[in-house]
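Dear U.,

For the methods section draft, I wanted the exact inputs and outputs in one place so we can describe them consistently. I've listed the two proteins in the order they'll appear in the manuscript figures. Please don't edit the token lines directly; just add comments below if something needs changing.

First protein:
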Amino acid sequence: MARVLSTAQERATVVIDAALRVFAEGGYRGTPVTAVAAAAGISPAYVFRLFPTKREVFIAALHECFDRIIDALGKAVRQGSSEEPAQVLEMMVGAYARLIADRHLLMLQVHALAASDEPEIRAALKAEQDRLVSFVAERSHADQPALQGFFARGQLCHMVAVLGIEGDQAPWARILADGLTH
């Protein structure tokens, strides 16, 4: 049987997927490239051949994270039956709530915020936020206050999910989590 060699692009996809998971678990500063390589099943040297720095691996994972978010939101809108801005945003909320059930996507965003003191990571995160906000605005046709509310609700969902307080009966937790779906 002939051995099939994977292309650099296929390997890069495997590395990015592994990086998304591993960085989500350990953060940017706490995760060595060797951990990403081990999760991808390739050597650290090959990872560095594909991505010359750890920062580049992390940023590639961040781009993949936002690609998945935008894909999920777009799919929800395409499957929906309304073009009413408020309803389109609600479809997106539902899609995002289902998506962040995969804590890797959620935690990678949290870790990207934590590492945003690195100029290149901050720039990548800002570019991805620009892309996401533009996508949501274009697809929903919502006005600025509705868009701001949508993103504020998303950040609140992040905090509730990260803290694991959905269903918590403590008064402060109920105030924050009431009516949110994750």
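Second protein (the one for the lower panel):
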Amino acid sequence: MTLKQLEYFLEIARMSSISKAAQNLNISQPPLSMQLKSLEDELETYLFIRDNRNLQITPEGELLQERLNAIFALLKETKQEIKALSVNREMILRIGTIGSVNNRLLPTIISRFRREYQYVNFLVMEGTTDSVFANLLADKIDLGFVREPFNSSGFHSIYIQDPALLPDEKDYFVTIAHSHFYDDYFNGSNEKNLPLEALRNKPLVIHKRYRELLLNACRKKGFSPHIVCENGEIQSSLSWAQAGIGIAIAPYTSAVMNTDPTLIKKRLDSIFLSPRVCLIWKQSTKLSPETLALLAMI
């Protein structure tokens, strides 16, 4: 569960109506209903009894509401105490991140955070998932944004919902290339999905983290992929695709960094790993109040 889900629950409980809560929260009703169902599924209980007119909170929902009111009151008090301590104070929060997060998500998160914690400055170290892990282990950074798959042993992690995706939608792989790389398969059609078999004998540009995943998937389809470039940066894959060297394969949330209108994206079938972005930190690290406040905003 996330703080956002819990805030949504409290508003639904206050209004006894999903539609009224959605209006107050300035979001549409279907995503709000989906968030409530996700919370109930995780708690394995109903929080409301539904009828045609309104919602009646269950005993389990009343307990959750009571506890959350206390938690959010304590969180508000903590924020006020932190702000009182922040007069003439400065600190540096060290963050490691992959390029797609640094270019798209992190600035928005930090902008919101600094409205309340203006005394916090940042040291951002951009790199690969592997380098972020290395910097965490060496205590060079406090938090790290990485992309699955990774070894989570010894780390806490939280999933980052990318705004490029729909609520609860999982990331997926896409191909990015100039249109002529698709012509012999689609014959000019606007089909958005690309079967894996269509990559047979095509020049591919991939991130090294997904090499084994791609090899195994292609072998199951009866062919070996023609990899012309294997690199450690998604931006490099996009640049090679832009230069017309081949078809780049990347997670959708990384591919949206591409601003070249001549490049065509196709959703790649048959590769089912969900390459999620996660925020991680060492289990042995005691996080500062400011770092905890940043986590609460995500």
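Candidate sentences for the figure legend, describing the second protein: The domain at 3-84 is CATH 1.10.10.10 (Arc Repressor Mutant, subunit A). The mean pLDDT is 87.

Thanks,
Y.
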